[in-house]
Task: structure prediction
Amino acid sequence: MDRDNSREGNIESKPLTKMKRRRISKPKISTLTRISFLPSLFTMLNLFMGYKALIYIIGPKQNFKTAIYYIMASVIMDGFDGTIARLTHTESNFGMQLDSLVDAVTFGLVTSILAFEWGFQSGFTQIGSIVSFVFLSAGLIRLARFNVFKEAQAFPANIFIGMPIPTAALSICSVVLLFGGKPPLTRTGILFFSLYVLLISLLMISNVKYRTMKKFVAKNSLRTLFLLALIVGCLVIFPDITIPILTFSYMLSPLLFYLFFRKPKNTEASGGDKKTESLLVTKTAPKDGS
Result:
């Protein structure tokens, strides 16, 4: 009996020793931090443009318009890095995290400081610090939520949930351009600017669906090329007018899609009823020779 028990103990202990000897394969550090040169180059250019914008916002030679032009250049660089990564099939988790951190600095921190320095020069600095911090917090929450949705593939690639943070940054810049760089001096102006910044912050963390151009396939490439050339030309020649027009158009795009491009449910339901009725008629109709 003792021998049998000892044999059973040896048999049961063998799988345990095998389990102890198994090693969990860990990914290499080089594969986790794989950097694609060209997309990362545009990401660093995005950060550099944001850094230059910050210098012109809080530096000795304060110039809000020049800072806005640098932020606009950052938006262009931000669009290039993702596009190049998709075209060259060099997308990586490290690149996504790096891009989010750079966006948090350029479009979150720098733009919040721009809102504070420009909008609250004449007073109400305490309210201005709170409003600017709300914008910064909403931008970071927006970026974190975007990364979670992208990893989980919760939504199609051509849809953004909430206003993208580059558009939110341009929304602040557009108001500065429309006022010619002159800050609001009255209490009413400061109040409206504060409410506007809070509205932009709310749109970033909302569930409003914004469409992107990632899966856009043009029927006529010549028309698309002409349209892009026209936009670039207007941005170079008339930046103070073109930036607000493009920004506000994209801000209102979900409302425009809802009003003009949505499919009415009543027509779809009536169309489905007609199809079912026609199918029933064809099934119940008597065949020839019956």
Observations:
- The chain has one domain: 33-254.
- The beta strands are 159-161, 209-211.
- The mean pLDDT is 80.
- The domain at 33-254 is CATH 1.20.120.1760 (Four Helix Bundle (Hemerythrin (Met), subunit A)).
